Amino acid sequence: MNQNTSKIFKGGYTEAEIIAGLLRSHGIEVYIEHEILATIIPWVLSPGGSTPLTVYVSDEDLAHAENILKEFEPAAENAE
Length: 80
Fold this sequence. Notes:
By secondary structure, the protein is an alpha+beta fold. It has a single domain, classed as Alpha-Beta Plaits (2-Layer Sandwich). Helix content is 51%, strand content 21%.
């Protein structure tokens, strides 16, 4: 990403990939920091390896991305 970016999510590998896939399906470009390292040595990136990945979106897409995640959140809660 060549633009200024903002953090949209920090967490585990599976959750980060789901969020990144959801945002990409809506045409939002995402960058996952330390994606490869998190699969190999997550404990080096965060204490206990519990939140090794950070997902970033461009500043111009931030509001749209936040709205998508807000819409997704209630749907996920209802599925439980």
